[in-house]
Structure formats: C-alpha cells, structure tokens
Structure to design on (860 residues):
C-alpha cells in the first residue's frame, strides 16, 4: 500500500506519523481506508486526512499530481494525491468538518453529490459560494442527515474529468435492513490523457469527433443482406432526412477514454478477495464524466439494496446500467467459481472497465464477449407513442422488445400509475429555436425500457420501474403545481440546454416554493440520455411505484423520454440543477433552482 | 384538480415566488462567477482543398498544372460567427486566378442553418479586374445531410450573380471518406472583362477520396470535371481557353 504514497505538500506530518494517525482514525470512524484491499486504489496516500482538532472530519488537498494510469504517466487533478480520491467515511448524524485546500492555480471546489447540506456547503461555484480560490482553504461543516453510498467531485470547469472525485460513505445509525459480510467500493470513471478542454474544443468543432462507430457503406451491405435492401434504404433515408446519426450514443468514447475501475484500467485488473458463500456489498459509483456504464458480473446475480444511497426493495438482476453520478449498492454471494469478472462496458460499447472478485490474488475469470454497438431507435427520437406499428427499432442491432415500447403492454403491476407512465403527450408547437435540432413528437415514459443496447440478451436487466423504496413513509400526495422542462440540444453545434436555451441565456433561477408539492416533468427532445441531478433535495422518481417511488439525486432521462419527478422543496436557497454529463453541463445544460424562504422566516 | 384551476394556481404562486427569488438573485448574484462558461469564443479553420491539379480546362496539358486551395473558417460563439472563405487557383509559373475571398457575419437562424452577410473580393481571371461584392448567403446542412452553401452577390458596379455548392460525405469505412461536390455560378449580367456571361457560367463536379489518418489530417486523391456554358463559354473561347475539361487532383484536407 505505501509504495505509491505521495508526500503531501503543506502537511507537516511525516509518513510514519500519518500512518499511525490513520490507524487511529479508522477506529474513530472518520476515514476508513481498510475498506479497500491493499491493492485497491491506484495510490493509497489517502489514509491521513485527519483533523488535528479531533472530531469527525478530513483534510483534503486538491493538486495536480503525477500518477501512473494504465501504465502511462499522467497529471490528473486529484484529492490527496490519489485517483480516485480517498474514501471519506462517516456516521449518520455526525457533524463533519472537512477542510479543503486548493493547491491548483485556478479556482476549485468540492461538491458532495447527493448529500443534503445547507446551500453554502454544497460546493457549487457561482451558485452557492464563490469557489475555493487558488491557494486557499475552505472549511465545509455540515451534519450528515442520511446514510448510504455517495461521492464527491469538483464542480469547477473540467476538474472532474481531470480526476477530482472520490467515494463518500455514510454508515447508518440503525443497521441496514440487509446483511453482508464484507464490502467494497467500485468506482467507475473515464480517464483521458488529453486535456479535457481539448476534448471539448474538438467536439465543438466536429461533434462526432470521438465516434469511431459511425455507419458506413460496409454496414449498408451488411444490413441489406440481413434485412433486405428496401428496409435498409428506408432506415438510412429516415435518419439522413432527420440529419441524425443512430450511432450517436456517447459524445466522448473509448477513442480517447481509458475506462477505470477504482482508478485502474482493465489491464491492471483491480481485484478484491472473497471467501466462498460470503455476501459482499458492492458500492457501485459512476464517477464518469461522460459515460453510462453497463455492469455485470458473469456468473453472479446481483441484488440491488440501495439506489442513490437509499434503501430499496431488493431486486436481483444480472446487469444494470449506471448513469453518471448514480450509485447502486449490490449484494453478491460468490459460490461456485474461484474468480469472477466485474465488467463495466461503456453504453456505446467503445470500451470497458473491469476488475476481479477472486478467492486468491492473481486469479482471473475470462472477460465476457464484447457486444456490438447498439443503435438509437425511433423511441430515442421521442416517437415511442407513434412507434407501435413496429417502427420502434428499425434495422437495429437490438431486437424489438416489449419493454422498448412502454405504450403497448406492460405487466399490470409494473405500472399501476398508468396516467404517469403510459400517457402519450404530443410535443407542442414550440421547437425551441436554433439551439435545439429535434423534438420528441410523442414522448412517453421509458421506465420499463432497459435503454439503448440493453434487454435483448435474455439477461434480467435493472429497470427504473424496479426501484421501489423500502419504506413507504411520506412523499405522497397529488402535486400542487407542475412545470415542464424540455431537455434540448443542437447536436451538430454542441449547444445543450433547457427549452432551447443555454444557462447563459437563462440565468434567472427556476422558482421552487418552500414546502410545496411540485411535479417536474422532463421532455427529452434530444436523442441522448441525460442524467439529471438536482442539488439539495431528493427527487421522487415517477416510476409507477406509487407510495414506494424511489428517492433519487440523479435521474437518467432516456433519449426521447417524457419523465416526471416530484419534489418537496425543504431547503431554502439556490441550487444547481443540471445534466451530469460534464460537457453537457459545461455547454449550458444547467439551471439554478431557487427555493424561496418559508413564510415568516425571511432572511435578514 | 381540474387542469384550469391548477393552471390558475400555478400562475399566482409562480408570481409570488418569482418576486422572492428575484430578490435573492439580486442580493447574491453580482459577485459570483457563472457556474458554467457555456459561451466561450471558439474558432475553426478547415483547409478543405489544398491540392495539385492537372490542367483544369485543357485536357491535362502539363503546362497548366496548378495549385488549388479552398478554405473555410469561423470565429465566434454558437449563434454568431465571423466566417472567412478563401478559394483560388495558382497555375505553376503564372498568376493567381479564380481568387475568391469572403468575409461574412453569420447567425444561426435554424438548427442547421446560418444566414450570412458580408463582403467578397472576386478576381476570376489572372489578367482581368478584381471586384468587390456585397454578399447575402446561407450555409448549413439540408435534409439527407447535404452540405449546402449558397450566396448571392451584388458587385460594386451593380452586377448580380450567385453561387451554390452542394457536398456530401460518404463513409466507405470509418476512415475512407468519399466526398462528391457540385458547384455552380450564375450571373444576371454579362461582365465581359471578368469573363462572365449571362445565365449559368459553369458547373464543376469533384469527387475526392480521402483517408483520415486522424480526423484533422486526411490526404486525398480525386477527379474534377468542369464545364463552361453560354456566354461564359464564348468568352473563354475568345480568350483561347477551353470550355470544358477534367483534371486529377491530389492534396490534403486539414482542419484546426
């Protein structure tokens, strides 16, 4: 573990003392590093961020650091010299003090993703605080009002893409309602050796820059031999007429990304050990800047117990898609094999991260066969409601599935709230101007749809409609007010926004009223999935589960989908609300939400 | 709750909250930098053609081999850009001809279309006069992904002309890309000293096959057919030029 230890500047303690402190700290329930096995993190200098003052907390230092990633030298921007940053671990109910020192030459910040904190502790420069200036230290102090698996990351510029992220775990006061013998964090991310600003600049000049899977003339012949010339040409003509590309699944791909699992590339094979029949809790975190991952462990069923840190009714699946910023806690129980591969494939199939669950160090299981890149469909173009005649998946690599057409037929128990999940609401006349290239003409909820490229392999895949809160307390009632927000984009020019406008064109906050029951409906007019993150408040995902609708901090709105969430704003202040694809946010897909003070408690 | 009553309620409560949030906004917004910088000024320069071409109008006569270039670039934001187009042919050992430089201001008016206006300098014959024009045009992508550039020109002497270009990119593979391109010029008035007749002046069809070593760097080979029509053809004959020809081209496509 200490071989890659980084000496931290500005910290007077020597390594030996740090180690001692680290040992003490674990006992004090602050930063638990024993969580990851010795060969877990890329470098494990993370055990010392302790406060001299005692009490739960951490000292974090943000700096550009030379590290080796996938065998190549790199200069990521990281916390405490490691990528991912140190695991921060505390107990529910504690008030934590986290001192963050910015050793970069630019403003930085750390946002605690999914944590309910006062706005000034939320860490979003320009929304709730000015950011941490170069060379300065900011002290975050807040009470932990929840438990579960979360994470933290920079909210400044491209720093998150450059490596500034790490896990944040809060142990519950009352024991979790599920049993496990050991646990590990599986933090997925996408690393580029290019300067993230260059990546963005290239996309702005030529949007499909990183798409190396566009359809070619060779594909025309292949498809024609399979489905006939007529169908092939009709399909090509349909997409060409729209000036859209069905292979546009991820804006940034394996063409530049090295996908990482706990900071290690597939070639490095991050490994955690298990004992037979042991129940392992795997805390999956997607810290990827631009990547949806499809995760499976061939040979092992995974039982979901928490989503976005919140307990859910257990669901056993063989594969799940994790959108950027989501977390899923899975319990697995290896029995027969000596080794299993943890396989996290990018949604566009351009690459993967992988690791191993093994009985002994050095064991490996085979990698599963790679899949063909999928294609977007008419459902992804927001034509689900009109697509029931079989247009849903034209000449696609994926076979049509019932799930792909939620408007048709569903198990009655899957969507009891039919008004929310089955209604077809045609798009209005407003096409959102030049900042938006397509509209979802007849969008429907796709909570029963596993998503692009999933669900056709005979595997049980996690659906949003599977997410059911474990306890059904509160969070019910008819919304008093509804707003509709269209997720829009001009793909050619890489303009992203809400209702056709970038943040800079719509700086006025979206007003939320303290204590109201508000329904927010997204209409995704684009053919990209957008993981939408609301700071400071839980979103109650409208997935048809009634009183058991899950609480989410990040909701993946599928291409062409109409999807709602309810929110009861209970934290006055200004909050960021944005797409968690980093570059979409940077290019304008962000709004500020303002929760007014409750009546009679006006700020002085 | 009926839809109408819900809407009424929405309107009133939104009003109250708007007033409240405006106060919050004004009180805090001044000193904070924006959370995202979504409107940076960016630039792009495409050297679409930088090529050696065999003689364009006299059937491959070696003496008339030339260097041709065609560039397009912009600087600006997402909606408003300054565009610069240049084009020209430099026969080896002779002076530049078909010189065309346009500096335009463009606005994105629809998802795939910029409207552009500006000035142009055009000197079609190496020994003829160059003229300055006002330009009004569009550039963008038509359904079926045809790249389109069309413009009308009004010269300093009041002559009206127009030019249209259509191109397509056919992906043979991810890296081998075939680019057909069609361009035509038309004129309302004859401008004898520039070799321009009335009506359709010429049509040029090019077919270039490039290999993208990387996105930004692609050497290519191609062929080009060109033909002059009507009065333009007659003026060419009078000068002793050919009215049609075909040429082979070899060059490199670059962008930054």
């Amino acid at each position: 573990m200490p071989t890659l230890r980084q000496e931290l500047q500005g910290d007077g303690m020597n390594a030996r003392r740090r180690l001692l402190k680290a040992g003490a700290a674990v006992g004090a329930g602050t930063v638990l590093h024993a969580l990851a096995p010795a060969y877990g993190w890329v470098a494990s200098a993370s055990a010392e961020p302790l406060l001299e003052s005692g009490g739960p907390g951490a000292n974090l230092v943000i700096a550009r650091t030379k590290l080796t990633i996938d065998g190549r030298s790199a200069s990521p921007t990281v916390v405490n010299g490691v990528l991912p940053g140190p695991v921060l671990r505390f107990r529910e109910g504690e008030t934590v003090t986290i001192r963050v020192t910015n050793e970069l030459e630019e403003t930085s910040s750390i946002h605690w993703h999914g944590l309910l904190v006062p706005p000034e502790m939320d860490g979003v420069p320009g929304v709730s605080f000015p950011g941490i200036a170069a060379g300065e230290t900011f002290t975050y102090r807040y009470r932990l009002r929840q438990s579960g698996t979360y994470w933290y990351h920079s909210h400044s510029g491209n720093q998150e893409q450059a490596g500034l992220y790490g896990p944040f775990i809060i142990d519950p006061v009352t024991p979790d309602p599920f049993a496990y013998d050991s646990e590990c964090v599986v933090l997925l991310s996408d690393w580029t050796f290019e300067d993230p600003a260059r990546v963005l600049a290239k996309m702005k000049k030529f949007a499909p820059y990183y798409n190396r899977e566009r359809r070619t003339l060779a594909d025309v012949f292949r498809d024609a031999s399979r489905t006939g010339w007529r169908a092939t040409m009709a399909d090509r003509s349909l997409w060409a007429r729209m000036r859209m590309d069905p292979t546009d699944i991820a804006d940034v791909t394996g063409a530049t990304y090295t996908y990482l699992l706990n900071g290690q590339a597939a070639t490095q094979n991050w490994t955690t050990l298990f004992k037979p029949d042991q129940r392992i809790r795997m805390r999956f975190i997607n810290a990827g800047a631009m990547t949806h991952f499809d995760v499976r462990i061939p040979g092992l069923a995974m039982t979901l117990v928490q989503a976005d840190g919140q307990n859910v009714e257990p669901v056993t699946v063989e594969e799940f898609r994790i959108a950027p910023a989501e977390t899923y806690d899975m319990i697995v129980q290896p029995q027969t094999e000596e080794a299993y591969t943890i396989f996290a494939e990018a949604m566009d199939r351009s690459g993967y991260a992988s690791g191993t669950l093994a009985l002994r160090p050095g064991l490996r299981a085979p990698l599963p066969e790679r899949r063909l890149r999928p294609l977007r469909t008419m459902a992804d173009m927001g034509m689900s409601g009109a697509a029931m005649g079989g247009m849903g998946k034209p000449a696609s690599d994926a076979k049509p599935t019932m799930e792909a057409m939620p408007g048709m037929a569903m198990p009655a128990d899957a969507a009891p709230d039919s008004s929310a999940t089955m209604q077809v609401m045609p798009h209005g006349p407003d096409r959102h101007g030049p900042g938006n290239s397509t509209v979802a003409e007849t969008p429907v909820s796709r909570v029963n749809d596993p998503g692009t490229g999933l669900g056709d392999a005979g595997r049980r895949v996690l659906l949003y409609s599977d997410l059911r809160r474990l306890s059904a307390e509160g969070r019910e009632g008819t919304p008093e007010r509804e707003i509709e927000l269209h997720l829009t984009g001009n793909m050619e020019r890489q303009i992203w926004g809400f209702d056709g406008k970038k943040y800079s064109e719509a700086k006025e906050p979206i007003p939320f009223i303290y204590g109201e029951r508000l329904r927010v409906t997204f209409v995704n007019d684009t053919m990209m999935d957008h993981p939408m993150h609301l700071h400071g408040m839980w979103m109650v995902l409208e997935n048809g589960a009634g009183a058991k609708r899950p609480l989410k901090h990040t909701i993946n709105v599928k291409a062409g989908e109409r999807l709602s969430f309810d929110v009861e704003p209970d934290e006055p202040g200004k909050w960021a609300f944005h797409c968690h694809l980093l570059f979409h946010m940077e290019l304008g897909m962000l709004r500020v939400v303002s929760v007014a003070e409750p009546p009679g408690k006006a700020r002085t | 709750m009926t839809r109408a009553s819900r809407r009424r309620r929405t309107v009133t409560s939104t009003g109250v909250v708007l007033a409240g949030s405006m106060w919050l906004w004004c009180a805090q917004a001044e000193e904070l930098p924006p959370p995202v910088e979504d409107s940076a000024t960016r630039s792009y320069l495409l050297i679409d053609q930088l090529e050696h071409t065999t003689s364009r109008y006299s059937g491959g006569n070696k003496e008339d081999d030339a260097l041709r270039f065609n560039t397009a670039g912009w600087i600006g934001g997402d909606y408003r850009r300054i565009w610069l187009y240049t084009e020209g042919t430099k026969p080896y050992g002779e002076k530049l001809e078909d010189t065309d430089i346009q500096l335009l201001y463009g606005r994105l008016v629809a998802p795939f279309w910029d409207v552009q206006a500006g000035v142009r300098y055009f000197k079609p014959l190496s020994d003829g006069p160059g003229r300055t024009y006002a330009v009004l045009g569009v550039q963008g992508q038509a359904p079926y992904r045809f790249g389109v550039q069309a413009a009308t020109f009004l010269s300093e002497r009041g002559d009206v002309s127009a030019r249209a270009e259509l191109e397509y990119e056919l992906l043979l593979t991810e890296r081998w890309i075939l680019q057909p391109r069609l361009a035509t010029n038309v004129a309302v008035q004859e401008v004898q000293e520039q070799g321009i007749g009335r009506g359709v002046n010429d049509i040029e069809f090019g077919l270039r096959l490039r290999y993208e070593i990387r996105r930004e760097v692609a050497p290519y080979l191609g062929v080009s057919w060109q033909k002059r029509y009507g009065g333009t053809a007659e003026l060419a004959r009078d000068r002793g030029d050919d009215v049609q020809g075909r040429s082979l081209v070899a060059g490199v496509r670059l962008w930054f």
User: Anything to note?
Assistant: Chain B touches chain A through 46 residues (CB under 8 Å). Residues 16 and 22 of chain B are 10 Å apart (CA to CA).
